[in-house]
Design goal:
The protein has 12 helices and 14 strands. It is α/β, with parallel strands linked by helices and 379 residues long. The protein has 3 domains: 76 residues, Arc Repressor Mutant, subunit A; 130 residues, ATPase, nucleotide binding domain (Nucleotidyltransferase, domain 5, 2-Layer Sandwich); 156 residues, Nucleotidyltransferase, domain 5.
């Protein structure tokens, strides 16, 4: 009897998960459509819809246009039933985002706060996070968790930064955040976070190379639909590929790293102006000097893409702060330079641009708790 009861309970949970997953995937649907597509009985679907609505997971508002009979009621998931907060920690500031169940950033903010490994820093950051949540009137029960993307290599257990030369945040601890914030917390490398966002946006890709063009350069490798970390969590550190042993000195102490040519900081250093001003000049009143700086930047980027694509034969996604500044002509030039010295030709559909700019790592980090919630509700 107990075994039969457990079987019945399991079946009910499975049906509930199937109905919720179907609504989530369709975004808008009707009761009859669920019955037809899932091949469930009307009473079973009705019972699950009532349960999901009572739990606050779905809403039934509005009607589809009539196709001749009675208008069907529109069923949707409640997109902000749970929210994940993402932080993108940088040397002089941090980005904060709120992400809904579809992975959409529904609120963003950038807060100036120079990083210091001190109680004062973490206390002020936590206060700003709490203020952000309060300003947007998110009830605490809606917050699934806070996920932190930071520059630096993260330990395999996700509890600390093991290498943080850019910010000086080696030994940053997950507990620095979790001890000050009344929510579950998660810590990860900002390049991995960027890759998670691009994987979310391109679920059709089994593998991909991600170039995170932020103030500092970052990279990530996706294989088998997963971000590849490596034995020591160092896979995808494209920024430290040496392209000129006698080149400029990198923050890591070595010379000629790709970081010195293809980060936003490298562009600022070469042009002597902020990124926004550089691209304004480039697109409105380009001087030969400005054009040459951008050409050199793209040439170095093409060199890296061409060689890495021979190791991982996959699409390449240009992501992060600089991505929104790229124009179609830049992509075509990159392709030309990639293919110029390559045995195998890359096609335009294999070179893509991310569209979340500077908030990319924060949004990608927030997806950790969104995916966790969806895994529970749809399986």
């Amino acid at each position: 009897m107990k075994e039969k009861r457990m079987t019945t309970i399991t079946l009910k949970k499975m049906n509930r998960a199937k109905v919720y997953q179907y609504i989530y995937q369709q975004k808008e649907t009707s009761k009859l459509q669920i019955v037809q597509d899932l091949q469930m009985g009307l009473s079973t679907v009705s019972q699950n819809l009532n349960d999901l609505e009572t739990s606050g997971l779905i809403s039934r508002n509005g009607y589809f246009e009539s196709t001749g009979g009675r208008k069907a009621q529109i069923i949707r998931i409640v997109e902000d039933f749970r929210i994940s907060i993402g932080l993108g920690i940088l040397k002089d500031m941090f980005h904060i985002v709120a992400v809904n169940l579809y992975g959409d950033a529904i609120a963003t903010e950038t807060i100036s706060l120079p990083y210091k490994n001190s109680d004062a820093y973490y206390n002020e950051l936590a206060e700003n996070v709490e203020q952000f949540i309060s300003n947007h009137q998110y009830p605490s029960e809606k917050i699934k968790g806070i996920s932190i993307a930071t520059q630096g290599i993260i330990s395999p257990d996700g509890t600390s930064v093991t290498y943080g030369a850019i910010m000086g945040n080696t030994h940053m601890q997950l507990s620095d955040f979790s001890s000050r914030l009344p929510y579950p917390c998660h810590l990860e490398h900002d390049s991995k976070s960027a890759a998670e966002l691009e994987l979310w946006n391109h679920p059709q890709f089994d593998s991909a190379l991600i170039f995170l063009l932020n103030s500092n350069l970052g990279g990530a490798i996706i294989t088998n639909h997963t971000v590849h970390q490596g034995n020591h969590m160092r896979s995808g550190l494209f920024e430290h590929i040496c392209i000129d042993p006698h080149g400029l000195k990198c923050y890591c102490g070595k010379h000629g790293c790709l970081e010195t040519c293809c980060s936003a900081n490298a562009l600022i250093s070469a042009s002597g102006m902020p990124v926004k001003d550089f691209f304004y000049r480039l697109h409105t009143e380009p001087s030969p000097e400005i054009q040459q700086i951008w050409k050199d930047y793209l040439d170095h980027l093409a060199f890296a893409i061409r060689n890495l694509n021979l190791i991982i034969d996959s699409p390449v996604i240009i992501s992060g702060y600089l991505a929104p500044y790229f124009r179609q002509s830049d992509i075509l030039y990159l392709l030309e330079k990639i293919n110029e010295h390559s045995v195998f030709q890359m096609t335009e559909d294999q070179l893509l641009l991310g569209n979340h700019g500077q908030y990319t790592p924060a949004i990608g980090a927030a997806l950790y708790y969104i995916q966790s919630f969806l895994n529970c509700e749809t399986k």
